[in-house]
Write a structure and sequence with these properties.
The protein is built from eleven helices and five strands. By secondary structure, the protein is of the alpha+beta class. It has three domains: about 90 residues, Arc Repressor Mutant, subunit A (Orthogonal Bundle), CATH 1.10.10.1590; about 110 residues, 3-Layer(aba) Sandwich (Glutaredoxin), CATH 3.40.30.10; about 60 residues, no CATH class. The structure holds FE2/S2 (inorganic) cluster.
Length: about 290
């Protein structure tokens, strides 16, 4: 019936590209997929990391990758592709050697995120969700990275590039294309998107402690509290800002002192004993989050 056809505004986003059957998945990949599945009490809980492994091998969610995940987990390919097409971190078309994201959510937008995206798009000659013809760089518009204190933020292979400007973006893109060594502003030396995907799958590359973790902006509140002698309230059942009152600017009692110590000594908390990179990965915005 004319006039009732459904037109998608995202014609390439809905499904895995079944026309491209190329794959590098082999017995080693199968063994690693099985290993991932064995890490969970319920094997299908491993599907998200397994899909990251598929991306590290095939550079996208390939039809063979979907089949392999389904086979290892004993579920249907429809169930696997239903998950793979739900999350934006899973790519249905080949990503570039480096995958570049530009945050244009509120705070980054206010600080120039849209201009950054436009600059990157023009400089690369590609649109959002496209890859340069040489396969070097793919571009994505991303949602808040929970790095608003460093806005506007770009990501390369899911690593932070903070406090960006259009000029810095052009240098970054040129360096990536030229194969120059590039360091994340709060992380390790950048490798490739596929290598990053392998880490996300759960196969560490041994570089979790490379580079800085918390930046000065993130620690500013702590520094202000320290310089004012503020401490955490001892009674956490109340939300009243007692810690800001004169009564709590005296020498802190023991629980408050412990809380302050924990806040000040980031590396001393149990959570902080997790390597910085793993902490970043675990809380990285957009990860396993539907957009
Ligand atoms: S709005 Fe861009 S990191 Fe939060």
């Amino acid at each position: 019936m004319s006039g009732h056809e459904f037109t998608s505004y995202f014609p390439d986003s809905g499904s895995v590209d079944l026309e491209d059957q190329s794959t590098s998945i082999d017995e080693t990949t199968y063994a690693e997929l099985r290993e991932l599945a064995s890490r969970y009490p319920q094997p299908r809980s491993a599907l998200l990391p397994m899909l990251h492994l598929v991306q590290s091998v095939d550079g996208r969610i390939s039809p063979k990758g979907i089949e392999a995940c389904a086979e290892v987990l004993g579920i249907t390919t429809a169930q696997v592709s239903g998950v793979a097409t739900f999350y934006t971190m899973y790519k249905r078309r080949p990503a570039g050697q480096h995958h570049v994201g530009v945050c244009t959510t509120a705070l980054c937008a206010v600080m120039g995120g849209d201009v950054l995206l436009e600059t990157a798009s023009k400089h690369l000659g590609i649109g959002v969700d496209e890859t340069t013809p040489d396969g070097k760089i793919s571009l994505e518009r991303i949602e808040c990275n929970a790095a608003c204190d460093f806005a506007p933020v770009m990501m390369v292979n899911w690593e932070f590039m903070d406090d960006m400007t259009p000029e810095k973006a052009i240098v970054l893109l040129d360096d990536l294309r030229a194969g120059q060594e590039v360091h994340s502003t709060r992380g390790a030396t950048l490798t490739s998107w596929r290598e990053a995907e392998r880490v996300l799958a759960g196969f560490p590359d041994g570089r979790a402690d490379e580079g800085p973790s918390a930046g000065a902006q993130s620690l500013l509140g702590l520094r202000i509290a320290e310089s004012n002698g503020w401490s955490a309230p001892s009674d956490t059942s109340t939300s009243k800002p007692k810690a800001m009152s004169s009564a709590t600017t005296k020498a802190p009692n023991e629980p408050a002192a412990q809380a302050q110590e924990a806040a000040a000594g980031v590396e001393e908390t149990p959570e902080a004993k997790v390597p910085p990179k793993q902490r970043r990965k675990a809380t990285k915005p957009g990860e396993e989050t539907a957009k």
